[in-house]
Structures are given as structure tokens and as C-alpha cells.
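Researcher: Please generate the 3D structure of the following complex. Treat every line as part of one assembly.
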Amino acid sequence: MNKSLGVNVKTGGNEVKNTTCYMCACRCGIRVTLRQGEVRYIEGNPDHPLNKGVICAKGASGIMKQHSPARLTKPLLRKKGSDRGAAEFEEITWDSAFSILERRLAKIRETDPKKFALFTGRDQMQALTGLFAKQFGTPNYAAHGGFCSVNMAAGMIYSIGGSFWEFGGPDLERARLFVMIGTAEDHHSNPLKMAISKFKRSGGRFVSINPVRTGYSAIADEWVPIKPGTDGALLLALNHELILHGLYDRDFLIQYTNAAELVNQDEDSNEFGMFVRAEVPADEGCFDPPNKLWWDRNLDRAILARSEKADPKLLGHYTLADGTPVKTAFQLLVERLRQYTPEWAETVTGVPADTIRRLAHEMGVTARDQKIELPISWTDVWGREHDSVTGNPVAFHAMRGLAAHSNGFQTIRALSILMTVLGTIDRPGGFRHKAPFPRPIPPCAKTPNDPSAVRPGTPLGDMPLGWPAEPDDLFVDEHGEPVRIDKAFSWEYPLAVHGMMHNVITNATRGDPYRIDTLMIFMANMAWNSTMNTVEVRKMLNEKDENGEFKIPFLVVCDTFQSETVAFADLVLPDTTYLERHDVMSMLDRPISEYEGPVDSVRIPVIDPPSGCKPFQEVLIELASRLGFPKFVHKDGRRKFKDYPDFVVNYETDPGSGIGFLAGWRGENGDQFMKGSPNPNQWEKYRQNNCVYQYHLPKSYQYMRNWNMGYLEWAQDHRLVRYAEAINLHIYSEVLQQFRLAAQGKTSDRQPPDRLRKRIETYFDPLPFYYEPLESRMTDKGKYPLKAITQRPMAMYHSWDSQNAWLRQIHSHNYLYMSPLVGKEQEFSDGDWIWVESMWGKVKCMCRFSEAVEPGTVWTWNAIGKANGAWNLAPGSDEAKKGFLLNHLISEELPAAEHESYSNSDPITGQAAWYDVQVRVYPAEDGKNMSMPQFDKMKPVPGVSKKRKPWLAYFAGEKQ
Amino acid sequence: MSKQLALVIDLNVCVGCHACVTSCKEWNTSGSAGALPDERPYGKDPSGTFFNRVQTFEVGEFPNVETVHFPKSCLHCEDPPCVPVCPTGASYKREEDGIVLVDYDKCIGCEYCSWACPYGAREIDTRQKVMKKCTLCVDRIYDPELPESERKPACVLACPTSARLFGDVNDPDSEVSVAIREEGGYQLMPEWGTNPANHYLPRRKQRITIHEDELIRADSPLKKEGVHPHGPVEDVTLDDVTSW
Amino acid sequence: MNPAFSVIFLTTLIGTGQGLFIAVVFGQPYSGSGTSNYGLVATILAFAFLAAGLFASFFHLGRPERAWRAVTEWRTSWLSREVIALPIAMILVLIYALLQWIPGLVDGKGMNIIGLAGVFVMLALFFCTGMIYACVKFLQEWATPWTIINYTVLGTASGFVLATALSAALDVARLGEFKGLAIAFTLIGLITRLFSFQRNNRIKYRSSIQTAVGIKHRKITQRSMGHTGGSFNTRAFFHHCSHKLISNLRLVVIVIVFVIPVAMLILYGYLPREEILWAAFIVQYIGLLAERWLFFAQANHPQNLYYQTVG
Ligand SMILES: Nc1nc2c(c(=O)[nH]1)N[C@H]1C(S)=C(S)[C@@H](COP(=O)(O)OP(=O)(O)OC[C@H]3O[C@@H](n4cnc5c(=O)[nH]c(N)nc54)[C@H](O)[C@@H]3O)O[C@H]1N2
Ligand SMILES: Nc1nc2c(c(=O)[nH]1)N[C@H]1C(S)=C(S)[C@@H](COP(=O)(O)OP(=O)(O)OC[C@H]3O[C@@H](n4cnc5c(=O)[nH]c(N)nc54)[C@H](O)[C@@H]3O)O[C@H]1N2
Ligand code: SF4
Ligand code: SF4
Ligand code: SF4
Ligand code: SF4
Ligand code: SF4
Ligand SMILES: [Mo]
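Model: Done. Output below.
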């Protein structure tokens, strides 16, 4: 091979194919070079709008995924009589796998469809899996969102109609000040890295608020170490300080938010806390009709909000003609913020009051004095012409550091309001939406709201997941009790818009609210890193009832690799890798849109899968056809779609609607976007165009989209939204107030069960407030003084890269990082073995001292520790013996108070509260240098490679 | 001065993502430097040959601490101590572009050059038993079959923050020379006179200075609400106590 | 540095061989009897040591079949020079043996010339070997004339101790001189080695974490070396032994390389049993292995600054 260097080795003669990466959820465009059928090189596709040629550590290690020893290659059936978790399997054929599934699922569907639950992890095909569940007729469907970052989605979407995560982001191209909160890596990995570096190089100032300084925070101009779970206090104090100094964008607040709108303050009224509404004939819409009131300064009376020539007051309390006392929403906010002084916040957050003040001033003055004005004319929904787009160049980004706490929703509301007060929503230099956002507040999609929606043999009428706008939208029975197995959309977690996957196994095992029959898990490692309370959950998966039947009778796992969860399956379906299958990143799901317009993309296989592997998409199409789902078969029962690619091209959400999974090159000639009849050439078009379709909105449609008539009408024309109406920002959340009123017994319709009234009343506050995370509040902080959190390592994706020979060398095991002060107090040294213990259990691990962590916090990299033998790593591998998983210390439920057990989640959204756990650490003196707990060794399952190579020297095209 | 190709690494933007680490491995293992072996790839304590590593240092004490991500590969020293010690001539520095290379056909795997590199930039190939190290992707950067824009090292193309600049440090007008000059580029361990061609750019801080009198402006929106931005004037004033 | 056993054997074996040869040549004028085959045996033994060292060195090479290439860079590489000097030395030793085996080929003067040439090459070889280490300027423990002096003196000492033992077996006539010189060289070795220990104790390292990463700050700590798996850098440059072991080993070396052998040589004067001399040689040789191990282990390679912390 290497005949002496320096001689030109020609790269030519190789085959080059484009597809989309899926070493993580960022979905970069990649160029795969093959040499004699083997992957020689994977690089970023320079012509791809997302990553423009760059790639990350994971993406560049894709080759090793292809050569993983943990690769599943045969459908597997648990051996009769063996325990779940023992990984005793026999190989079966796909034919028998399908007939097992068909028989079982048909029976469930004909009797009680909700006994089938489909939960998927960090996948990118919720459009298909959601459709499958809906067609099956089960409400018991969700993906990772609930245990991931639903607080982020809900907190922001319920406030501004869009959010960070995959729905919008900071405009670092034009921002001058960038504040990043609680983000280690996030989904927009490569684009964010590109943007931050460009931002810094163009002289922008970058502040990071995070208990830990690594990754992005490392290159911040200022690091603000904060105590975990206290950002709400900081954000409220920032709001306080800004408003105190008049550093808010008054015009923006008045016109584009509900800040100046009048709120009923009559405590005796059932309308207390609701906006006062004028009698205006309202369109039948799913959101904010334009019938609220302002107080006009000149007339000194209430007038219809946004009336022409009105000069409204932003602050103040007034009395309406009928005697009703009212206040502007902003007045209520100011009153709320009064208590949240920087001095107060210092005591909660550990951030000095002076720093808080300075940060507020930096934000406020930058926003006010460095205004951007772009010569782009646009027209707002009220018909007013603007000859420029303006912006206040302060951008934020936040993720799970805010979301993964049980106070996250209100914290993220506080952030949304901060961004709004600064006037930075969908404006240059601030926050920018990505299609199909902005959505109405809340978005229109609703779940069924009645148990009768679940009927044998019948698809669900509504979506399995949706956005409740009022108590009537909850999915509860006549007693107000949950219909879904995870209790999402019930009074316990009313706005659980992404479901609550983290409670499925516990609830199903307990039969609370009911037992199910079949649980299908796709692309989620629920017996390990994506579950809380891992030790117990693994027991639950194996738990039997008094008849000797498993409490969860049938468990189907679809995975590509021999994960920890595979060991617990009754039926294992071996999937393909991302290089071997068709995939779509659909506008119906979470596309890869850019600020400038919608973008969707696809994967097209670049190599063939092993013969025993089948894409899960094909499995679903096959099952849907066999089970005769209406959307998948003709009237006479013949199947409609040959395979997944065929489905993607020909499926329309409604027959003739012209809307399908892919938005690009629709219509017979491929000249339509979003809406158009199926185009048989669609895949080919994507193939020719780097596997991506990008729609460039005209400049005048690219900003202020919540109110941009051009944009909204375009979006309506293309069926991105139903209504072309203003999406005004919710400084004050009437949606929340409605739930509160119900809890107070002030409404005539649905009210929560009595045991939940107090809870709803407390947390459904229409204005953001700070409360200590639920678990911390129930923790003996004298005993467990430290907060424990995890971070994503940039070079690993959750649990799935330990099988990757290159990536695992970067992170084969993990340490618990902490301030040296902690070690000093507990008398252990850097590198020592220690116990870390929460009220739920203890884990043994190695410690590493670090100066770059808030001294009350300990942290580790997420999901590095593995169960012995899992991922077909040699028994005793570093991952199992030196690595550890923090999840053992985190409970899926809060300490049971009296009779109630609540999920360890945000009480509003059901977001899993991963980062609320409190711990103590102390030296491990048993002398055994091995992490704990340990689990029985997982055996290699049939079909995975039996011989682990003692060494590897990969050279593409030279089969070894 | 003759050409000296090099990398310039901007610590001001490197986020420590390791993209340069694995893209380097990926390019080189199937390239003319390959294969780059891994020992016990799926066993206990795996280990392998990489040309580039990204390390992390902490500077200072909490809360005044900087976390510095620090990529390191062969620095292609202008006066490379690793070259003259090599008994076989396998290690050499190219006249034409200053790249320090190992001729794998000559190398006897004596490891002496690795002792003679103060930076720990060389790694033995445990299978071929010869010494290897960063080649500056010599098999990419001159490849006429690649488009001009891609005739760069794999790690440079991969780096999402473009923290890795590539060019001729002896050409005063090159991007790298300008960066070294203008951004304070420096060399590692200058005490040994190795004169590394690779340079590092330090952290730079951006601050905002706000003067007291900038906080509240004449057109403060508070005035519109009848709120005096400096606080209410309720205390006694001269008007209350005297007349003239 | 992580001591490489092949190199430890290489340097100690050839050192003894070189020393022994020097002793033989030195002893030549004393070889009055002509009946003893001492000279021949000792020369062959010296050759054997050199050959064994050469053999050991192959274990250090990844590609021993290409070892011949190592002679090419004699202009710059001390390793190359060693690789040239060693065979020349061996050839001279062989010739010297041959001349003793077939007496009369050359006269005494010729013998002396060849012998002195051999001694010169031996010293040159000591110099080359020493310079291999001493020329790596940033390995500050090595980059000192003491390295060369120690290689030379310790090799010579062990050669003379061996020569003493050998003469006790074959030719008592020259024993006195050998023993005296063996004691002398060992004691000189003790002094030079103590000097070098002392010097190394006081080294001010020119490289620091600050110069390694180019940041000026009193407190810089590594949090991660970039990989939790091992690498060449963590294997080849670290001995992974405790400081305590190292400082204890220093004492052990002093005792078994210097004190015990000298004591035994002196003891022989009172209790003239051949075994004592052989034991002195063996003890000292083992000590030298440890000394060489220390020589490596004590050297702090600046690259280690980059590989402090797994994380
Ligand atoms: N390389 C890589 N990329 C990934 C993933 C991966 O596994 N690997 N996973 C993907 C997925 S599914 C997700 S959800 C995203 C998540 O992306 P992130 O939200 O960036 O994920 P986390 O690693 O949870 O980062 C949380 C950050 O918040 C900080 N933090 C914790 N608690 C608090 C707090 O109370 N306040 C503040 N201010 N900060 C806090 C932590 O220190 C950490 O830096 O990443 C995605 N991208
Ligand atoms: N302590 C702690 N726990 C956490 C988090 C945290 O921050 N701290 N983060 C949480 C978050 S945000 C998330 S999103 C979850 C993620 O948790 P999961 O969604 O469970 O993610 P993974 O661990 O990557 O597991 C995904 C599974 O998909 C498999 N897989 C990979 N590629 C494919 C494929 O192409 N097809 C199929 N069928 N399977 C495939 C992998 O082998 C693996 O078994 O973890 C959560 N858990
Ligand atoms: S960021 Fe994610 S999608 Fe992009 S290259 Fe890396 S692994 Fe692939
Ligand atoms: S790829 Fe760039 S940002 Fe990432 S570690 Fe390497 S130099 Fe730093
Ligand atoms: S960095 Fe090391 S290997 Fe590279 S040229 Fe300099 S001395 Fe030689
Ligand atoms: S290992 Fe190879 S390149 Fe290095 S000094 Fe020895 S022969 Fe030269
Ligand atoms: S220049 Fe090439 S060989 Fe050197 S570190 Fe970068 S990718 Fe690796
Ligand atoms: Mo996630």
C-alpha cells in the first residue's frame, strides 16, 4: 500500500455518492467515496446548505460503524423459558418475524388498540412512526421529545410560536452579543460551530451561562458559572434589570406581543386573569382572535388592540367602562418581576448581582444602540408597509441545561420573554425561525380528548401527539384520568406535547393506568441510557405477574446493534445503517430548514445492507399493509405501496392533497414545492441535488414571519399553515391561566381531579416564576449537597458509538468531574475511586478534579458507561469496568408523597428532569478498582461477529 | 525563503470537537500513510495510531478559568530534531515544501526519532512496525484530481470552526502568515530552537464597555409610561424649602 | 522514558565487551608467560559480549531485516555512527583474537597497534553510544557529558571486573593489576554516577506546561490528553512506576553496582576464592541493568507534558 510517501496517490478511480449523515441528528450532507465497494472516505458535502463541507468527529468515523462487531444481522426470537436480559435468542426468518407480529398486532388492533405502544428514541422519522400509530389506532405513541427537551419546544412555542432545538436558532450572522445557556452540543452541531467561530471572528461577544466550562463555553468571552436548575432566577432578574432601566423595545412589545393588552383583574370574576375581549366577529381559528383591548393614552379609554392611530399604554392599571379593573399584561409582568432583583438572584444562582446587572446592561444597550436596519421592504398582516427590516443584535441559544429541569418550562418562558422584551424575535441578529415554524400559539394539532377516540380496528381521528390550548384538549376520561399509558395530556402533565417515554415501562409494568400487550421500541436504548432508574427498569422489563406472564407481555426492539435493550427483547428486528437505506427528513417532521427558507433532505443508500437486515421503514410499510391500514391498502385490500421509496413518492396526507413526505420537486414535472401531485422522479431529483431540496424565500419573507403577510400567505398557499394570521407573542400566557382557572374551579368545563388542583394552580402561572426544582425540594440537601448533571461529548452520540473503534478510543470510559474543593472536603484525590450517591442509589466511579465547574456541581459525559458485554465489546472492557452511567442515580418518579407518585418531570410538560438529582460523594475504600453497579455479562447474540479482532488496520478496498 | 507548508491552529475558536482527529484517521488509514492500526479495537483498553490528538487544558482557578482545547499533530519543524537522528534517512524534510515525512520503506522502526521529537508527534505503527506521523496530507494537497478548493489536509476541510488554517508560513502574504502576524501566532516550546512551522493563535477576548450615562437615554420608553427613569422625584427639593 | 529492555541489554552487554577488550589490551604487556590462553579467551569473550549486544539490539527494531540501512546516515546520526562503530569494533576484536590464536602473524608492536586501534574504536563506540542519548538536548537528564563519561567508565569497570574474574581462572599473574583497576574504575564510576545523579536532581527543566501550550499562567493543568484509550505516547515515554520505587532503585544501584562489587574485590584479597570474583561481576552486571533502567526511567521527556491526564 504505502510505497513511500510523497508520490501522488491518485484519489480518482473511486466511486463517489452523496447522502445524509446520521451519526447524529444534525443531518449533515456527506460525500461518501467508495473504493471497490468499501467506504474509503466520508467527508462533508461542500455543496450542502447545512454543513457546507465540514464534518464532525462522529461523521468522519462512519466507516467504523459499518465494521462494528455489534451489528445485528438476523431477526431474533427470545428462547422459550429464558429470562429477559439473558440475551438467549434463536435466529428466525423475516417471514416468521412478520407473521408473529402480524398475528399479535392484528389481534390487539381488533380488540383494544391502545394495548399496542410504539415508542421511538432519537429517530428522525416521526412522520412515519406517528402515522403508523395513528393508523393502528393507538394513542400510545411518542418519540424521544419528552425525555429530551420538550420544555424547550413547549416553553418557547407556547410563548413565541417557535423555539430552539430543531425549530429555530440564533442569527449569529448579524448578532453582536450572543448568550448561550445550558448547551453542550445540540442538534445543529456543525452549523452552530461554524456560526460561533464566524461570529467570534467578526468581533461579536460571546457569553456562556453554564455550570461547566467545556466545548462551546470554552471559547466564550465570558463564562458565567451558574448553579444547576436556577436559570429561571437569573433570567427573571435580567428581565427585572432591563425593564427597570427602560431597556426594552417598546414598539415591538406593543405591536407584536400581548404586552399592552388588558387583563381582567376582577378577582371574583371567572374571567380573572383572562384578556378582556371586545365583541368582534372572530374567524373560526385555532388561535388568538384579534379582539383584545389596549388602553389608549390620548383617549384615556380602552380601544380595540392594534387599532390604527391608537397610542396605547404599555404599563398601568385602569378601570373599564363596566367597572372591571384591568392591567396591561406588561404591568403584570413588571409587578411579577419586582421581587426578582439581582441581589435576590445572586443568592439563588451564585452569580454575583453585579454580573447580572452588567449582563443586563450589555444586552439592553446592545439591543438598543446597535440596531440593524436592512433595506428589505415587507408588509405586515395588518396591511402596513415597512420599508426596512430592523433588528436588535442580541442572540440567545439554550438547550437542555434549561429544559431538563422540572422548572424548565417556566424558565424557558422567562427566556422567551427576555428575548421578546429585547425585541429579537425573527429579526436580524436575534432569534430566527425555521420552516415550518412559526406556528400558531399553540399549534393547531390536537390529540383526541376522549377515551372513545380509541376504537377497535379504527385509526385514531386525531394525532397521537398535539398541542393542548385549553383543558378541553386534554386526553382524559370522564374522571379526568389519563387515557395514554404514559399519562401525557392528562391533568398530571397537561402540556406533555411530546409524550412521556420515560414513564412507559414503569407505568406498563405497574398497570397504571392499565396493562398493555405489546411494546415496540425503535432506536432507543431504554434498558440503559435513555431510561431513568436503570437498575429497576431492567428488573421491571423482566417482571412477571402471578400467572407467570411478563407484565409487559411482548417486547419488540428494532435496533442495528447489540445494545443493552436488545437483551430484553422478545423479538429483535435488525435494522440497517444510515448508509444502507432510504430515509427522509420530512417537512412533516423536523426538517433541516434554514432561516432563509424550508429545506428537506433524504438519505439514499450508498452500500448494500447485510442480507438479514431490513430498514424499519420497510418493516412498518409491510406491517401496515398486512394489517390493512386504510392509508396503506386500496379499498379491496391490495397493498398500495411496494416499498418505502414508493411510499415516499406516492403517499399523500389526504388523497389528492398534494402533500407528502417530501416537499421538493413535487408535481408531475417536478416544478412544485410542498404541494403537488406525486412525482415518480422525486428520488432521482434529490439524488442529483446532493440529497437536499432548499427553498429560498424572497428576502421580504425571511423576517418577522409571525406577522409577515407575504410569508404567512405564502405559507398558507403551500399548506405549511392553515391560517395567515398574526402570531403575537405571549408575554402573558392565557393558555396557562385557563388551566389555572379550571383548577380554581372557575370554569364550567373540565376541571382537574381534586388531588391535582393545587398542583395545576401553582405551576400554570401565566407569568414566569422561579421555583426550586421538584426533586431538589424533596432532597435532604444536608445529606446530598451536590447537583449532578451530564453533558454530551462532541465525539459520541448517546450510547451508540462504543462499538465504533475510533470513537471509543476518545471516550472509552468516563470520570466524574468536580471542583478540587469537593475532594479536599471529602479527603480523596484526583483520579481516586469514589462513590456518588443520590437518595435513589449509588454508583462507583473515578473522579477527576476540574477548575472549570461550579463547585456545587459534579458532572460526567453522558452514556459512556456500558453494560458488560453489550455492544459486543470484550467482557471487562473499559466501558463496563471503568465507565459508569449516571442514570442509576436518577429516578423516573419523585419521592412518593402520601398516596401520589408523580413522574420526575416538569409538572407542566412532563419533561424528564434529568438534571435535578442531588448527590454526595465520598471515597470508595473497598480497594476494588471497578465501577459499580455491574451487571451479568451480556452474551453475543446470534448473528453478531463471534470473533473480536485483536487488531484492526482498516484499508478500504483491501478486504481483510 | 523556500516554501514551508504548515497548519495554524486558532485556539480562539477551537471547541475541541475531535473532527480533525477522526477525519485525519479516516483519510490516512486508507491513504498512502495507511493503514493506521488499532489494537484491541473492541477489547479492554483500546489503543491506536492517530496523527492528531485534541487535548484539553485548564488555565487558572475557578471562577477565573479558561478551558483550552489544544489540537496537536506534527509541527513540521523548520529545524526538526527528529530528522538528523534517524540512522536510515527514513525521516526527512522535503526541500520543496518543508513537510517532514517518513519513508516507510526505509524505516527500521528504531523509534529514535520519536525520542528526538519534543512534542510527542510521532507514533509507531504497531502492525507495519514503522514510524508514522502527520504527513500534512501530502497525498491530498497535490492531487490534481481533486478540485483546487479541496487540495487541503483532511483535518482542515473537516474542522467545523475553521480553526485550522493551512498554507505557506514563509510566504508573507499567505493567509497563515497574515494570521500569525496579526493575531499573535506563536510556536510551541520555542526553547529548543526547533522552529516549528505550525503555529497557534491565542485566545482573544471581546468586551463591551458601557458607561453609566449610556444606560438611560433621553428617549427612554419609560417616559412614555409616565415613569421617571431615574426614579420618582418625591424627596424634598430646594423648591420645597426656599424661595428667592 | 519507558526503559526498553533491548536497549538496556545492548548498552550493558557491549559496555562489558568493550571494557573487557580494553582490559585485554591493557593486560597485553603483562602477559609474560605465553602459556596461558587468557588473552585469547578474554578477547573471544569480549567479542561474544559485543555480539550479544548487537543481537539484543535487533529486538529493538520494528524491522530488523532492514537494519543494514542504519549505516547510511553517519553524517548526522549518532545511532548510525554507533551502528558503524560496533561492527568495526567487533572486526578488530576478531582480528585481535586471530592474532592471538595464530601467534607470529604480527610482532608485538603490530599486536600493540591493532590493540590500541581496538581500544580507540571501543572508546569511540562508548562515545557514540553516549552521544545517542546525550545529543537529545531536551532530554535534559541525558544531554550532559556525564552520559558519555558514565557509559565509558561503567562499561570499562564492568569489563575490568570480568577481566579480574577471568584472570583468576586462567592467569593469576595479572590479577593484581586488573583487580586494582577494576576497583579504581568502579570507584570512579561511583563518583561520576553520583555526580550525574546530583546534576539530574538539580535540573531546571526548560520546558514546562507553559511553554508546551504557549500560555503564560502560573496554574495550568491538563484535563484530558485527548483519548482515554492508550497510545504510543503513553506507552513509550512513561515507566508507570512510582517515585518511591525510583528513589529506592537509586540506592540499590549504588549498592550493587559499586559498593558490593568493590567490597567483594577487596574481600578476595582476604579470601581468594574465584567464585567471589565471578559473583562480583554478576552482581555488578545485574546492577548495571538496573542502572540502565534508571537511566531511562529518570529521563523526563518533554512530550510527557502533553500526556498528563486521562479524561
Ligand atoms: N455529539 C453529540 N451531539 C448530540 C447528542 C449526542 O449524544 N452527542 N445528542 C443530541 C440530543 S438527543 C440532544 S437532546 C442534544 C442536546 O444538546 P444539549 O442541550 O447541548 O445537551 P446536554 O449535553 O444535555 O447539555 C446540557 C448543557 O447544559 C448544562 N447545564 C446543565 N444544567 C444546567 C442548568 O441548570 N443551567 C445551565 N445554564 N446549564 C446547565 C450542562 O453543563 C451542559 O453543558 O444534543 C444532540 N447532539
Ligand atoms: N443521564 C442522562 N440520560 C439521558 C440524557 C442525559 O442528558 N443524561 N439525555 C436524554 C436524551 S435528550 C435523549 S434524546 C436520550 C437518547 O436516548 P436513546 O434514544 O435511547 O439514544 P441511544 O442511546 O443512542 O439509543 C438509540 C438506539 O438506537 C440504535 N440505533 C442506532 N442507529 C440505528 C439505526 O439506524 N436504526 C435502528 N433501528 N437503531 C439504531 C442504537 O444502537 C441504540 O441502541 O437519552 C436521554 N438520556
Ligand atoms: S454533526 Fe451529526 S450529522 Fe453532522 S457530520 Fe456530525 S454526526 Fe454527521
Ligand atoms: S476540528 Fe477544529 S474545532 Fe474541532 S477539535 Fe479540531 S481544530 Fe478544534
Ligand atoms: S514536531 Fe516532532 S516529528 Fe514533527 S518535525 Fe518537529 S520534531 Fe519532527
Ligand atoms: S523509527 Fe524509522 S524514521 Fe524513526 S529514526 Fe528509526 S528509522 Fe528513522
Ligand atoms: S494534515 Fe493530514 S495528516 Fe496531518 S493532522 Fe491533518 S489530516 Fe492528519
Ligand atoms: Mo435528546
